[in-house]
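Hypothesis: this fold can be encoded by more than one sequence.
Test: take the structure tokens below, design a sequence, compare later.
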């Protein structure tokens, strides 16, 4: 029988490829601004000399998105492209819809936070780099507004369950995915307006050549479910294509890519002279296949194993053998847990199976608004039965159930 005893080690003491600096900023509202408070947190990958972009994760009304910056899977995406990762928490005192309209103060707060982050982190480029914006509900509305107001700085917007319906011409060059749950389209449900605004925006501007698409989750309502399995792939492709090798000016995206029919889910490479019509803009064949799968199942399957953990340490104490390691979250499906082996035999699983301390069994899972939980899981384990001289190995397991190779061994001493 496996025994799972977690060692409660301070995260700062755990060396890791993605250990990094996090910075927090609070921006109070000014007179007349329609938000009650604004907190921002920025994560910058360790050793990154120049930040190339910021992946902005904007929560919905009433949600706490400050922990989005601590999401290990999104950190993997950001680090892969030399980007920082931002989370926030904006509260409101009046209407839920007030704060997500940037001119009501949240834009000023966001830009002021960037100024502070630039000074505190000694990364002055933070005030000028592009933004890749993911938003949920009110955060999706906020992201669409930013595409309209700052089209030259927005890599793309993933608008999960929220949209605006009018865009100036320059904004129609910004890639946008309107992602909503099929149950949001049910007449007279609480979020029917989400569906209608997304459809209206798409049907108005896609025929004009805007690189936009719909992505309908057949299993969800207003919750994010497994949409990250498609959105992270989308951002990975866009960041690779649009970020310049030098400077901050975005590379224009290719408007003539693969196309898909949101009703039939038929996909094909676009011909040079084809009119966009109501087809969905899909950045490449691999994404087109993933988009079809998501629209059918609500998720994208992962067939590739994660990377093996590294830097394993095994330190003897009067409590047993304390293990520490570092790991990069699997980009496609995150970290579900770690398998611990002693002298070649499995003895425990960190993050799984379910325990009193972790009732959902996640090393780091997600909640309704795609918030990570637990926020900062610890890559450590205490083997209370361990003895000096025992040989330990650790393997990472992703949410697809795929295991990495074992780490290099460490001997308890």
């Amino acid at each position: 029988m496996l025994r799972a005893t977690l060692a409660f080690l301070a995260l700062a003491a755990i060396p890791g490829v993605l250990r990094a600096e996090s910075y927090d900023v609070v921006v109070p509202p000014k007179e007349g601004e329609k938000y009650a408070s604004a907190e921002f947190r920025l994560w910058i990958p360790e050793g990154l000399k120049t930040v190339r972009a910021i992946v902005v994760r904007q929560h919905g009304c009433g949600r706490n998105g400050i922990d989005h910056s601590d999401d290990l899977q999104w950190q993997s995406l950001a680090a892969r492209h030399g980007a920082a990762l931002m989370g926030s928490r904006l509260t409101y005192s009046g209407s839920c819809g007030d704060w997500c309209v940037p001119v009501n103060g949240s834009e000023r707060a966001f830009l002021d936070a960037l100024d502070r982050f630039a000074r505190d982190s000694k990364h002055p480029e933070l005030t000028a780099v592009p933004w890749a914006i993911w938003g949920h509900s009110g955060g999706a509305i906020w992201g669409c507004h930013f595409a309209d107001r700052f089209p030259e700085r927005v890599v793309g917007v993933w608008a999960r369950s929220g949209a605006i319906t009018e865009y100036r011409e320059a904004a129609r060059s910004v890639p946008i995915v309107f992602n909503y749950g099929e149950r949001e389209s049910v007449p007279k449900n609480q979020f029917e307006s989400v569906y209608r605004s997304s459809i209206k925006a798409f049907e108005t501007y896609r025929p004009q050549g805007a690189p936009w698409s719909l992505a309908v989750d057949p299993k969800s309502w207003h919750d994010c479910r497994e949409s990250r399995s498609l959105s992270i792939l989308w951002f990975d492709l866009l960041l690779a294509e649009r970020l310049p090798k030098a400077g901050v000016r975005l590379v224009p995206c290719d408007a003539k890519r693969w196309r898909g029919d949101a009703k039939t889910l038929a996909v094909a490479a676009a011909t040079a002279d084809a009119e966009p019509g109501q087809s969905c803009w899909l950045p490449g064949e691999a994404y087109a296949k993933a988009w079809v799968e998501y629209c059918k199942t609500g998720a994208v399957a992962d067939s590739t194993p994660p990377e093996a953990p590294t830097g394993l340490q095994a330190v003897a104490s009067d409590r047993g053998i304390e293990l520490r390691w570092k790991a990069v979250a699997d980009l496609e499906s995150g970290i579900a847990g770690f398998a611990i082996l002693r002298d070649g035999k499995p003895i425990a699983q960190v993050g799984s199976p379910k325990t009193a301390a972790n009732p959902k069994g996640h090393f780091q899972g997600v909640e309704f608004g795609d918030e990570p939980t637990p926020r900062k899981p610890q890559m450590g384990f205490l083997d209370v039965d361990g003895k000096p001289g025992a040989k330990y190995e650790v393997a990472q397991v992703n949410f697809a159930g795929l295991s990495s190779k074992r780490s290099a061994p460490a001997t308890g001493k």
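The first strand starts at residue 20 and ends at 26. The radius of gyration is 22 Å.
Hypothesis status: open.
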